[in-house]
Structures are given as C-alpha cells and as structure tokens.
Design brief:
The protein has 127 residues and is mainly β. It is built from 1 helix and 11 strands; from the N terminus they run E-E-E-E-E-E-E-E-E-H-E-E. Strands 2, 4, 5, 6, 9, 10 and 11 form a 7-stranded mixed beta sheet that branches.
Length: 127
C-alpha cells in the first residue's frame, strides 16, 4: 500500500484545512485507516480513524473539530480540520493497517503500532 498526503500548510488560529491522502495498492473501503500527527521530540499520536464498516474514532483533543472521511471512488482519505489551534501544529501522517495488522487496528485504532503502512507526512502550522 502506498499513501501520499497533501493539503498541509500554514493557517491562522481558528482557520480550517483539509488534508488528503491518496491510496494505491489496495482498496480504501477494505482497510482500516487513520491520521496521526507528530511534533519533534514527541511520540506520534493518533488523531482520527475509520474502517471498512465506516466506524470512526477521534482523539479527545480533536473531537468536534476534525472529521475523517473517505471517497472510495477516488480511493482517497480526508481529514477536515476546523477551528485549528496552535497546538495542532505538527506533521500529519496517514496510515493504513492491512492484513494481520487490521485486527490490531480494530482493537487500538489510535495506536501507531497498529499500522503497517505510512505516508511521508505533510506539515500543518497554526499561528
């Protein structure tokens, strides 16, 4: 599975951004997928998750502000981010759990060790 993020950038606090993740090598509607973020010196943290059933899960810090969605026809995953705060500044990664990893993602959807495919990341800066 190959994952390519786009849509990052700089925005003022209170603003919005939408991240995209183009997926190839597998069908998005068959996978557990998620968004993670990382700032230097800190662990990569789970932000949002969705799976083949459409179940979603969010970190407490973003619930109500971020929305994960997918376009199965385009095989693309999205993260709509509203009311952005400076503490949302990070590199954002999309991730996929396929094969045996999917069972782990069902149990721990926001845990980075549940995923076995990662994109290269896109920077989001909120000032």
């Amino acid at each position: 599975v190959q994952l390519v993020e786009s849509g990052g950038g700089s925005v003022e606090a209170g603003g919005s951004l939408t991240l995209s993740c183009a997926v190839s090598g597998n069908r998005l509607n068959r996978m557990c997928v998620g968004w993670f973020r990382q700032i230097p010196g800190k662990e990569r943290e789970g932000v949002a998750y969705t799976d083949d059933d459409g179940t979603t899960s969010y970190a407490d810090s973003v619930r109500g502000r971020f929305t994960i969605s997918k376009d199965n026809a385009r095989n693309t995953l999205y993260l709509q981010m509203n009311n952005l705060k400076p503490e949302d500044t990070a590199v954002y990664y999309c991730a996929a759990a396929t094969g045996m990893a999917a069972a782990q993602a069902y149990r721990d959807p926001l845990k980075k060790d549940s995923y076995n495919s990662w994109g290269q990341g896109t920077q989001v800066t909120v000032s």
